[in-house]
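Action item from last week, closing it out:
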Amino acid sequence: LHASLGNRTIAERDEERAVPAEHQAAAEVCRRRQRRRLMEDHLYVLDLRNAATPKVVGELKIPGYSGYLHPIGENLLLGVGQSGLDSSNNPSPPIRGGQTGVQFSLFDISDPALPRRIDTQTYGGGAAAAEFDPKAFLYWKPRNLIIAPTNLHGDHRGRGAFSGLVLLRANADGLKVVGRLATKGADGTVNGTAVTITESFD
């Protein structure tokens, strides 16, 4: 069991455990399980009002996993990780161990007993840096802007490859793509001109 929330980490077994200060009464933890090459994610909502006896009050099971979690206001939670094949619909083999691509998931946790995933934004094979480094992520609250360093592999010829920042907005209606800011070209060289922005930051 391992997940990050904000800039804190909740872990189990031999890893350090910490509860995020911004979540005094509840915490959300993701556990991923690979079964028959299908990756599953369990989102648990914990009641921490009594830290000595935390209780699971809600659970959600979905394909894929979230390696990093970040609160968006009081009732929303953003997960950064990988999409996965649904066990009820498996049309093609997964890219790697049940993973099918980079995925941003938005969860509604307004009812702790019934957490819901209300939207996803999925990209191709690759990784968002926040999966491995919780500091490689920014939620700019004044502009409700999510900034996530992301690398995408593209196809076997490199078409569609991307290295840079993915920009999103999140609210109760779901996720909205703001744009991308490429920091490197497909050949690995620094690229300061490949910027795609679909809306103003104001």
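Closing note: The CA atoms of residues 44 and 59 lie 5 Å apart.
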